């Protein structure tokens, strides 16, 4: 349908050599500034998580308690700011109440914990009641940091939600006031029903379910700032159009069917505007409108393809996008009215799919440095232009999207020979595969 212009091979070889030298020279010192900038600086807090015991042998309570313990551990393990003590190092006697805590046993080697999570579960009036605590083991006189009680229905979904909520509380308390992401969701495209539809899952891959059932091609999902709507591209009518789904009404919201290609919608941080690519004028350009399509404004005026807008979530005053006006796809930034245009990626190759970090300081994108190379995920510090490479696989790694805490990225990868959605810490560590069935791509993290 559209193609990017090719760069000459000699130039690409020069670009590849220069880029290699650039990353070799900067890789050591860049990790420190980047980890600090995304709130992943060391040292990590050493946290012990005691198993919550069920207070009866009721099989439902026992099973749900096991689920709670596993989800809580996984959430804390994925946070990126904690060093979890191996459960094999935990003392034999696990506490249920504050007076049960043996501070010396938990702080002595090999446990050597700084903080302790503990509690219990009960079945009270056919409800799952979870008492959960976080202790500062270095403050024996006044150790209580968190004391929470969660009352849930006796089912898996409610149990997982309680674990996610407590994990979020812990992460916020120990992570500088930044809340956890354990109740967020990821939208993505999937062909597991033999058609490309929009799907949604919890941040950890649980509860995967479809949002569309058009029997056509739907892709590029983007969450509204309040997570009440998803904008995406669909070919349901035969022409690529922007469609919006409301989670409040479980229905599509009307959006104009402009002629030509219409794709890659992106919400403004206040939810009052949508930027998107359209070829209604004959050439794919970036446009801006209200969510109902009113007050249409064209932002770019350049031959070639301008596509994939992404807002600065911190200010709402800038839009990044991809353009091949220089000969290959590169990332540009402009003011929201189309002025103050500047090129962000300047080392050549193919750079696409910009995603702005929540703090507005970094841009994630996928980049193929040379024509014979493969796509990997990179992050640029916008103010300085410093770049760090996050993936180093022989497979394709594309379409990064930031988590709302700025500590994680979701992306698509073919490292298992099919396109699947993965997550990793924003410094490239701890990759986790979330999808398995069919092919899955184009993830977008909720707010």
Determine the number of helices (DSSP H or I, runs of at least 4 residues): 4
Helix content: 10-25%
Strand content: 35-45%
Strand order of the largest sheet: 2-1-3-4-5
**Biggest pleated sheet:** 5 strands, mixed
Quick tags:
single chain, 447 residues, alpha+beta, Neuraminidase, Rossmann fold, 2 domains, 5-stranded mixed beta sheet, 4-stranded antiparallel beta sheet, 4 helices, 16% helix, disordered N terminus
How would you portray this structure in words?
The chain is an alpha+beta fold and 447 residues long. The chain has two domains: 9-39 and 183-445, Neuraminidase, CATH 2.120.10.30; 45-174, 3-Layer(aba) Sandwich (Rossmann fold). It contains four helices and 29 strands. The chain has helices at residues 9-37, 59-77, 103-107, 156-174, and strands spanning 45-49, 82-84, 115-124, 127-136, 144-152, 185-190, 197-202, 209-210, 218-223, 229-234, 241-246, 251-253, 262-267, 274-278, 285-289, 297-298, 306-311, 318-323, 330-335, 342-343, 350-356, 362-368, 376-381, 387-389, 397-402, 408-413, 420-425, 432-433, 440-445. The strands form seven sheets. It has a five-stranded mixed beta sheet, with helices on one face. The longest helix has 29 residues, at 9-37. 45% of the residues are buried. The model is unreliable at 1-30 (pLDDT under 50).
Summarize, please.
The protein has four helices and 29 strands.
Write the layout of secondary structure elements.
Blueprint: H1 9-37, E1 45-49, H2 59-77, E2 82-84, H3 103-107, E3 115-124, E4 127-136, E5 144-152, H4 156-174, E6 185-190, E7 197-202, E8 209-210, E9 218-223, E10 229-234, E11 241-246, E12 251-253, E13 262-267, E14 274-278, E15 285-289, E16 297-298, E17 306-311, E18 318-323, E19 330-335, E20 342-343, E21 350-356, E22 362-368, E23 376-381, E24 387-389, E25 397-402, E26 408-413, E27 420-425, E28 432-433, E29 440-445
Parallel strand pairs: 1-2, 1-3
Antiparallel strand pairs: 3-4, 4-5, 6-7, 6-29, 7-8, 9-10, 10-11, 11-12, 13-14, 14-15, 15-16, 17-18, 18-19, 19-20, 21-22, 22-23, 23-24, 25-26, 26-27, 27-28
């Amino acid at each position: 349908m559209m193609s990017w212009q090719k760069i000459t091979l000699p130039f690409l070889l020069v670009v590849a050599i220069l880029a290699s030298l650039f990353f070799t020279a900067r890789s050591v010192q860049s990790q420190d500034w980047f980890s600090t900038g995304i709130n992943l600086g060391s040292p990590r807090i050493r946290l012990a998580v005691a198993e919550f015991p069920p207070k009866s042998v009721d099989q439902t309570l026992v099973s749900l308690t096991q689920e709670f313990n596993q989800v809580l551990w996984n959430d804390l393990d994925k946070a990126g700011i904690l060093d979890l003590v191996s459960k094999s190092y935990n003392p034999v006697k696990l506490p249920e109440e504050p007076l049960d805590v043996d501070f010396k046993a938990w702080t002595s080697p090999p446990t050597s914990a700084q903080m302790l999570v503990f509690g219990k579960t009960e079945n009270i009036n056919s409800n799952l009641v979870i008492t959960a605590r976080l202790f500062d083991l270095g403050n024996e006189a006044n150790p209580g940091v968190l004391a929470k009680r969660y009352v849930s229905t006796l089912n898996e979904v409610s149990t997982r939600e309680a674990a996610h909520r407590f994990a979020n509380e812990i992460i916020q308390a120990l992570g500088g006031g930044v809340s956890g992401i354990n109740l967020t969701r990821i939208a993505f495209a999937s062909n597991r029903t033999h058609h490309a539809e929009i799907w949604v899952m919890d941040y950890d891959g649980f509860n995967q379910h479809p949002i569309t059932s058009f029997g056509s091609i739907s892709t590029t999902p983007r969450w509204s700032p309040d997570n009440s709507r998803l904008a995406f591209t669909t070919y349901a009518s035969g022409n690529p159009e922007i469609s919006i789904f409301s989670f409040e009404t479980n229905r599509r919201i009307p959006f104009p069917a402009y002629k030509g290609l219409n794709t890659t919608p992106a919400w403004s941080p206040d939810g009052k505007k949508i930027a998107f690519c359209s070829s209604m004028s004959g050439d794919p350009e970036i446009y801006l409108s209200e969510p109902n399509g009113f007050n249409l404004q064209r932002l770019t005026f350049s031959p070639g393809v301008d596509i994939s807008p992404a807002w600065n979530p911190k200010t709402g005053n800038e839009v990044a996008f991809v353009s091949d006006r220089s000969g290959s796809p590169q990332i540009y930034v402009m003011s929201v009215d189309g002025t103050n245009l500047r090129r962000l990626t300047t080392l050549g190759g193919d750079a696409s799919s910009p995603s702005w970090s929540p703090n507005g300081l970094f841009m994630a994108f996928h980049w193929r440095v040379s024509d014979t190379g493969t796509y990997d995920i990179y992050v640029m510090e916008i103010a300085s232009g410093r770049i760090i490479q996050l993936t180093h696989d022989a497979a394709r790694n594309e379409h990064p999207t930031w988590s709302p805490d700025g500590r994680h990225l979701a992306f698509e990868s073919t490292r298992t020979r099919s396109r699947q959605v993965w997550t990793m810490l924003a410094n490239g560590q701890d990759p986790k595969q979330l999808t398995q069935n069919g092919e899955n791509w184009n993830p977008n993290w909720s707010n």
